[in-house]
Design a protein that fits this description.
The chain has about 230 residues and is mainly α. The protein has helices spanning about 5-35, 40-50, 65-75, 80-95, 100-120, 145-160, 165-190, 195-225; strands at about 50, 55-60. The protein has one domain (about 5-225). The chain has eight helices and two strands; from the N terminus they run ααββαααααα. It has a two-stranded antiparallel sheet with strand order 1-2. The two termini are about 15 Å apart.
């Protein structure tokens, strides 16, 4: 039977998480406001730094590196993330991890809806300072690749790490998930299809979404065991 202190502890923890969520959201929007206040200097200087001097149509580095970055950016595409999500959800269902499977599925679907909604609301144009190395169709802020790769990779990574007893393996899984997220975001700037602040905001929104999804999983799994919300 749950005590009053259990409910109080849970409420206190949820209030703390709400503060974290608001902090991430404000930080993401703050990146956009800061760059506008600076007249776009931050975004423009980083984009130009990644281009060949005197030729803004070509990214720095040999053609083989550019091709590698194209492959990396595909890891955050709708098709690849959908495939990763489906494989992970099926695995969780077969493993009878129904709460995790349902949460991950909703994380992917609602995360994509949230990304497109924010893009439509902000309506920021794509960079026109440099040539785009890959095609784009939607608005710029936030970076959908960055946001969804953070949401999916970090969520799956945390779920996998939870069931590992070895702390080294836990750390390895978290590091891999984080590196995948960072590489996808950085590739969007290198390819000229996003302003750096788009990517920074995408990471913030994606991390926020991952935290929310993992909180839901923790609540569902512990509620199932305890018969109510988890104790702090």
């Amino acid at each position: 039977m749950l005590r009053v202190s259990d409910w109080a502890g849970f409420a206190k923890r949820e209030l703390g998480l709400t503060t974290v969520f608001l902090g991430f959201a404000l930080l993401a929007l703050g990146f956009l406001a800061l760059d506008r206040a600076m007249g776009g200097h931050f975004d423009q200087s980083l984009l130009i730094a990644l281009r060949t001097p005197g030729d803004l149509d070509n990214p720095v580095g040999p053609p083989s590196f550019e091709e590698a970055v194209r492959d990396i950016t595909a890891l955050g595409s709708f098709a690849v993330l959908t495939l990763v999500t489906v494989v992970a959800v099926v695995f969780l269902v077969v493993s009878k991890k129904y709460a995790e499977a349902t949460t991950l599925l909703f994380a992917a679907v609602l995360g994509q809806v949230l990304s497109e909604t924010i893009k439509a609301f902000i309506g920021r144009p794509r960079p026109d300072l440099v040539a785009h190395v890959v095609d784009t169709t939607s608005a710029s802020f936030p970076s959908g690749h960055s946001m969804m790769s953070a949401a999916i990779f970090l969520t799956i990574g945390a779920m996998l790490a939870r069931v590992q007893a070895n702390w080294r393996l836990k750390s390895y899984i978290h590091v891999v998930a984080l590196l995948l997220t960072l590489m996808v975001g950085a590739s969007r700037v290198y390819l000229g299809v996003h302003w750096p602040t788009d990517v920074l905001a995408g990471w913030c929104f994606g991390a926020l979404w991952a935290i929310l999804c993992l909180t839901v999983v923790a609540w569902l799994t512990r509620s199932k065991d305890d018969g109510g919300p988890p104790a702090s």
